[in-house]
Design goal:
The structure holds two protein chains of two kinds. By secondary structure, chain A is mainly beta. Chain A is built from three helices and eleven strands. An eight-stranded antiparallel beta barrel of chain A has the order 3-4-5-6-7-9-10-11. In chain A, strands 1-2 form a two-stranded antiparallel sheet. In chain B, helix 1 packs across helix 2.
């Protein structure tokens, strides 16, 4: 049976016993500092220095914990038999026990192997996007446009995290006769709650949903000389939702792939001839690389 | 390419070429049927507010303005090509909308720019498909070209 005694208590116990009574070594335990043997040879102070092996001064070792071991009552320990555990008391060495890493399927809210403890990552990337509204699809020159993004993620290694992202996009605008005339530039800033399906696994699928702000600007279009239902700019609220998969290694490098659908509030960016306004709902498929800690 | 274009009379007007709204203008097109009829309706809309140029006979015209009907994006109704002096009109409009859009693009050819709907109703409102030329538009043209009735 083992007891761990705090250092201060151990010291007072040892000191108190040392001053109250002379030490009475346990006959079965080797003394920590055995008394000097009076019969041992004494070094000659006049001897040449080269012949003298320096004797290091006695070292008093202080340990922060003292283990006392009480043999089980049912074990009859003969005198002189070392009691297990006493040797450890002499070394002063406390073995390091590494923090237990969460398993790959764990939902622990802390990862001791990450400096942040939760997983904080930054990624940059790009991908493809498009509008789901037919009028908007027919207004831009290509059904699929390009995008670029930068994202900060807080909590990539715990079940729930937060993503904060910036997404930029650009698409040529077709006006008359299929001629590109102007550029539709999109700017999105959004935040999303992220549910990590396998937060402690090397490959982590995740789901996310959130809200943000989106602005579209029409640039380099000859509005002054055209009659168009397209406004110079528009601001809408948007609600991203989707799924992704994160791949990471122990160095902190990570790759992120995701698909997003963005629902938006009503827009006045593009009015059709029938008087209806086109919706700005869009989709995105993107990839990014980055670092997490 | 249009001929005999006037210089832009407005210091801030954004057009490379404009045409005199009071001088005879030849509106030419290869269109037929309803599209051709909508060109005549647009001319009549301007004439109704005293802008006589588009309604003049094509003989002896001071300027040619071509009108073409083309495929356009859903939100694009018309376009004034100020270099070629051509009105490009979406072929997806109804007859009434087409006449209004031709009148709108003619306004650009005269040198008019868009008028915010909050300022006044105008044929030059952006995305206009319903408002014909108004007395306010006549004044705007007169500010550029003078009163057509007194020239």
């Amino acid at each position: 049976m083992r007891f761990k005694i705090p250092f201060a208590v151990a010291c007072s116990l040892v000191a108190g016993s040392a001053f109250a009574d002379p030490p009475k070594p346990d006959p079965g335990v080797p003394p920590l500092n055995p008394p000097a043997d009076p019969t041992a040879p004494v070094a000659d102070p006049t001897a040449p220095a080269s012949d003298v092996t320096p004797t290091p001064p006695p070292v008093t070792t202080t340990t922060t914990t003292v283990e006392t071991t009480t043999p089980p009552a049912d074990i009859d320990t003969p005198p002189g038999t070392p009691v297990p555990g006493i040797a450890a008391r002499d070394t002063g060495f406390v073995p390091y026990t590494p923090a237990e890493a969460p398993g790959p399927y764990s939902y622990a809210w802390y990862d001791p192997y990450l400096a942040s403890g939760i997983g904080v990552g930054f990624t940059v990337g790009g991908g493809l996007s498009g509008f789901t509204d037919r009028a908007m699809r027919n207004t831009v020159s290509s059904k699929v446009g390009g995008l670029w993004d930068a994202r900060a993620s807080f909590g990539t290694h715990i079940p729930l995290g937060i993503d904060i992202g910036y997404i930029g996009s650009a698409a040529n605008i077709n006006t008359i006769n299929g001629n590109a005339n102007g550029t539709l530039v999109g700017t999105t800033v959004e935040a999303a709650l992220r549910y990590n399906v396998l937060p402690h696994n090397t490959i982590n699928p995740y789901l996310f949903a959130g809200a943000g702000w989106q602005r579209y600007d029409v640039r380099d279009m000859h509005f002054a000389q055209s009659d168009t239902g397209m406004a110079p700019h528009d601001n809408v609220a948007e609600f991203p939702m989707g799924a992704g998969i994160g791949l990471r290694d122990l160095s902190g490098f990570n790759v992120d792939l995701r698909g997003t659908f963005r629902a938006t509030t009503d827009s006045t960016l593009l009015q059709e001839a029938n008087g209806n306004y086109a919706q700005l709902h869009s989709w995105e498929a993107s990839g990014s690389v980055g670092y997490e800690f | 390419m249009g001929a005999a274009c006037s210089e832009d009379p407005g210091a801030t007007a954004p057009f490379a070429h404009v045409v005199d709204a009071c001088a005879p203008i030849a509106l030419t097109s290869t269109a037929s049927g309803a599209e051709l009829a909508s060109i005549a309706r647009a001319s009549a809309l301007w004439t109704a507010v005293g802008i006589t140029g588009p309604g003049e006979a094509t003989t002896g015209a001071s300027a040619n303005v071509a009108v073409t009907f083309v495929a356009a994006a859903p939100g694009v109704f018309g376009f004034y090509d100020d270099v070629a002096v051509t009105l490009e009109i979406s072929d997806a409009l109804s007859d009434d909308q087409r006449a209004i859009v031709i009148a709108h693009e003619l306004g650009h050819a005269f040198g008019l720019v868009h008028v915010p709907p909050s300022e006044r109703a105008s044929v030059m409102n952006a995305a206009n498909l319903t408002t014909p030329p108004t007395a306010g538009d006549q004044l705007a043209v007169a500010a550029l070209w003078g009163d057509c009735a007194n020239r």
